[in-house]
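Hey, can you fold this one?
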Amino acid sequence: MLGGLAQRAAFVAQVRKSKNPVTVLDSGDLFFSSLQKMPPAQAMTKARLIGRAYLEMGVTAVNVGSRDLGHGLDFLLEQRQAGLPLISANLRDPVTKAHVFPPYTMAVYSGIRVAFVGLTGQLEDSGNISEVGNRFVISDPVEAAREILPKLKRKTDLVILLSDLALSRIHEVVKAGRGIDFVLGIRGRALSTKPLKKEAAYFLQSTPNGIYMGRLDLGISRPGYPFEDAGKIIEMEEELLSLDQHLEELKAQLGGPSEEETQFRIGLVKKRKAGVEENIRRASAIGRSRANRFNWKLVPIDPAGPQDSKVREWIREAQINEDMLWLVPERCEPEPLPEP
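Sure. Predicted structure:
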């Protein structure tokens, strides 16, 4: 989807102004969508524009999603030739079994070695294009993880998986492969702002249609040690403020006709407040002892927000219908990621 492409580019440019290293990633299904039908020529125009914009943003890795294969392999090979860092550990040549694209890419930030591994999901609604020309096959992602991850163990301090797999399949990959710290991207429409931890990995859900950009902030003081979710403390602190406000509202009702009920409710809120304060204390202590922390959030991209002038001009030159840029077939309220 092209929703907010110029706004996304402007957001990335703004974040890059900070003193910390910034990495731009995409977990897959970047170029084509089964939810928005359009003539093939127009779809290709949009896809090439997306690739051009992500190169402009300085993207580090783009996982090949199954829907990215919707218009054949030649387009993706063209994008790779143009410099777009496409990766996939389980997209292979059917004859030689070689990887069509690199299975992973590496980057170093202040001495911290990070590997970005890509896994391609199965072709659900893109048609049986794996048979067209017999030019590629999508192998089992679990077996691909078992092959790649041991090779990365001594090379890296951090492994981030980019994936368009379903949640149940990602669980299998993490359990079988070991060594994955974060998973970015989960196939499905449900919108969740909260990380899910399974084994030693945190699952972080991206969202389709350009409505949000996921932002993962990492603080690494002890490479190889576990991570703690700093967002939990922020969330608990926000709940504490809400409880304080509710407590003041209840106290204002004292002396009224429902005095006994009000006192009872005040007791419940105080009990909850004490529990939240204890959880904050424990979480803060763990964070200090283990050092490595992360914070994950979804940043909404405002259609009326700042736009990158260069990308905006490319959209105009491509004559893309802007009414289609923000097509959202379904938008769900945030909810926790379910267990498979």
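Helices lie at 5-15, 40-57, 73-81, 141-152, 167-177, 230-251, 259-290, 309-318. Let me know if you want another pass with a different chain boundary.
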